[in-house]
Amino acid sequence: MPLQKLLWIATQICQGLEYLHPTIVHRDLKPANVLINGADTDKPVVKLGDFGLARIRSMTLPTLSPEAGTDMYSLGVLLWVMLTGQQPWEGFAVVAVAYKVAVLGQRLPLDQLSEARCPPRLRNLLRQCWDADPYRRPAAAEAFKELLLLQGALTAGSARDNGSGGGAGLSSGSGGAIKASEYAQPRALTYAFSAPAPDGS
C-alpha cells in the first residue's frame, strides 16, 4: 500500500476516533473493524465498525481519559500493521503479549521499516501512541493533525522530485493531501479493511 494512501486511511480513522471520544471509547480498534468503501481507489472512504466492546466514557475531557489512551495505543498497532503487512506479536499467546507489553515494556519493532516507508515524524507518532502512560498518548485530534502534516510533507516532496515546484499546501486533488473540511461528516462504508502484503503493495 502506498504511503500516501496509508496516511489517507489513517487520518480518517483518527477523525472517527475524534468524533467518538467526547463520549465513547471504541476499545476494539483493529483491521477487521475498519471498514472501507472503494478500497481499490487512492482515496477510499473509511469507517469504524463493531462497537460491541465500546463503552460510554465517564470523563469529559478527551485528552485526560486513560480509556481513550487505549484506543490510541491500538491506533499505533493498526498503523504498524498497515506499514508492515504483518500480524502484531504473531506466534505469541494473548497472555504472553500482555506480559511483554505491560510488564517488560516491549513494543512492536520499527527498526525494519525504512525512513521512506516510515518517516521519522510518523515513527515518533507511533512511539507516542505506545507510551506506557495512557495520559501521555496523543489525543485523536492531535494524531489527526500530525498525519495531515505528514501527508502535506509527502506531497511536497513528491512535487519536488517531479520538478513541478509544488508546495506543501493541503489540497484534495488526486494524490494530494487531505483538507480537514473533507472530514466534516461521517460516511457509510461497505468493505472490510485487510492488511497490505509484506512488500507494501
UniProtKB/TrEMBL annotation:
Which spans of this chain does the record mark as coiled coil? none
Citing just one GO molecular function, the answer is: protein serine/threonine kinase activity
PANTHER family named in the record: PROTEIN KINASE DOMAIN-CONTAINING PROTEIN, SERINE/THREONINE-PROTEIN KINASE TNNI3K-RELATED
- The record places domain Protein kinase at 1-149
SUPFAM superfamilies per UniProt: Protein kinase-like (PK-like)
Mind telling me what this protein is named? Protein kinase domain-containing protein
